[in-house]
Amino acid sequence: MISYEWNAAIKGVIEGFTEFLPISSTGHLVLVRDFFPLTGDPARVQELDNLFDVVIQLPAVLAIVILFWRRLWKSTAGILSSDEARNFWISVIAAFIPAAIIGFAVKDKLDLLMQPQIVALALVIGGVVILAIERWGFSGAIARAEDVPLAKALSIGFFQCLSIIPGTSRSGATIIGGRVFGLNRTAAAEFSFFLALPTMIGAFTLKIVKEFHHIVWATDGPILLIGSVTSFVSAWIVVSLFIRFIQKYSLSVFGWYRIALGTLILVFSASNGS
Length: 274
Fold this sequence. Notes:
Elements: H1 4-18, H2 25-32, H3 45-55, H4 57-67, H5 69-77, H6 83-106, H7 116-136, H8 150-160, H9 170-180, H10 185-211, H11 217-246, H12 252-271
Helix pairs in contact: 1-2, 1-11, 2-7, 4-10, 4-11, 5-6, 6-8, 6-10, 7-9, 7-12, 8-9, 9-10
């Protein structure tokens, strides 16, 4: 007998583990959908999957808030009195705007992109780009997320738009954008984390408003709750480890991982004639 709650827990772990790494959480969730169904109703499979994938991103964002609460509180409390705090939030919102506009414009077409082959190609291409960025050794003069100028933040925001394609990775696109525009690895990763706050909260709000009346709380509620809890816990652990990792090592391992996974998916799809 299939345990949909157990499947929700596993997918929550996958979301939390992959959301803030440059390897695409959406891509991974698309790839495991058939292995971990959330309902036995064929008419609701895709609808519940799409809702679940967005809802469990919010607890992952909560992990960021808790891990960085001192810096976030300092910048929020000082928004009226500190130029640095004010400029930081202006930069974050500016970086959010391009994806908000483009994402809203194409939101009804995104389901068409949820295909394994598209995910695989995006994984491979993104992996090659990460390896190239690390190989070229961008200087990374900006060492803090709070020091990202408005123009650079806006440019990073346009990079984030690439993550509309499943498999690209929101964090991967924004970290790469940060590296291209002069942030060191830590600053690029942290700015990506902070940019996730308005981005994911916005996506969550839009999805809930659209789907609220279609949610069957008796059955969907436990699924969403379990996935949210495991997403939060795994995101908390992974982000803590990721920050320590990139302070010592390059992002190349994630590039190679993306290329290997994407290649395996393409080979598997070709061998099955799909």
